Amino acid sequence: MSQDRHEERQQRLKQKVDERIDAAQLERGILIVFTGNGKGKTTAAFGTACRAVGHGKKVAVVQFIKGSWDNGERNLLEPHGVPFYVMSTGFTWETQNKHTDTQACLETWLHALQLLQDPQYDLVILDELTYMVSYHYLPLAEVMNALSCRPENQSVIITGRGCHRELLEFADTVTEMRPIKHAFDAGIKAQKGIDW
Ligand code: ATP
Ligand code: MG
Question: Which SUPFAM superfamilies does the entry link to (predicted)?
Fold first, then answer.
């Protein structure tokens, strides 16, 4: 393609993008969902948390599945005023006991509920929440209600595989992480600083 034609195309593209930027006038908090089977859901959520904290915004994190290792994001963000509420009782990917897990989930959800009613918080992260809904530990209606009633300027990020269709429909931004390949499948161990 000639330089002239390239410039002409770029100019047209820029005009289209500028028009769309001018048309976007609403200002309110949004619901973001990071779902899918590929790696990057939790890291994307924490990337956004870092951004928000870097702008002096108030962020809180609720984690519905506790990793078996210590948590690099928490080590970094907690000293910067980000509270973490992590589901206790040793619930991990490995152990599942419906009764105790439901109880632990509902206890953790109470923290989420408080945050979702507190206009001080600009961003609330509900990490691995999708499983609580798909395992029926937490009623979908309860989650939908809390999300709909939250403060207007509060944004929320939900992560986890297999996100419920109603949550996807209600969300403003949905990204599906699609695995192309993963080091684990080649026998490479999960690594501190990369995977947790
Ligand atoms: P990350 O925390 O790295 O952003 P994630 O939140 O997208 O990953 P989860 O399903 O929450 O993915 O994964 C839990 C753990 O499994 C993480 O340590 C993650 O790095 C790892 N993992 C994520 N996707 C895959 C995959 N496709 N195969 C193997 N391990 C994975
Ligand atoms: Mg995750």
Answer: P-loop containing nucleoside triphosphate hydrolases
